[in-house]
Amino acid sequence: MLVSWISETPDTIPANASHVVGAGALVINKNTKEVLVVQERSGFFKDKNVWKLPTGVINEGEDIWTGVAREVEEETGIIADFVEVLAFRQSHKAILKKKTDMFFLCVLSPRSYDITEQKSEILQAKWMPIQEYVDQPWNKKNEMFKFMANICQKKCEEEYLGFAIVPTTTSSGKESFIYCNADHAKRLKVSRDQASASL
Fold first, then answer.
1. CA-CA distance, 185 to 3, in Å (whole number)?
2. Residue 107: which residues within 8 A CB-CB, separation 6 or more?
3. Disulfide engineering: 23 pairs with which of 63, 68, 84, 122, CB 3.0-4.6 Å?
4. Which intervals of the chain form a coiled coil (predicted)?
């Protein structure tokens, strides 16, 4: 990006995009109590024998909830519906040692169960018991992964509410989404539906 600040006041134009938004998918098979995991063909996790959740970068103009479902389908062939955001983390100077990485851990509910790996990126994909996923040496020795795995286990084994989406519109009429506590999101949707029904 090439800019030239003309005013005599301090330049307030941001240098360039400062954040990259990524998402990981905890896809839970409630019938078997297993989660969808992948081993990557390339990148940081290549040859590390780590089974990880499907992850990816959210595209420009794409919502988190649609982007994470897209990534799951691309990497594994599994069609899944967004349920909620469980957690998110922020890591500065993470991408190219310059950009801030915002990563959202999301829960998805599968509509299909037959896996078809994306051959260009994924070495293997499978359904794995949550305890086996949590107990991997990588997750035990890396604090951030340990914390994320613990949150996944809590969601699989007991009630753990995250942030659900509430569709809304901006003041200019553009579609937008609020992420809030799942119980509150349900109440907001019900009150909006009741208001619409009374018109």
1. 42
2. 25, 26, 27, 28, 82, 83, 84, 85, 86, 155, 162
3. 68
4. none
Q: What is the CATH number of domain 19-157?
A: 3.90.79.10
Beta bridge partners of 12: none
For 100, the token pair is: 């801030």
Confirm if 129 and 43 have CB atoms less than 8 A apart.
Answer: no
Query: Rounded to whole angstroms, how far apart are CA atoms 114 and 73?
Result: 11
- Determine contact, residues 177/67, Cβ cutoff 8 Å: no
The domain ranges of the chain are: 19-157, 165-197
Per DSSP bridges, beta strands 34-40 and 122-129 are: antiparallel
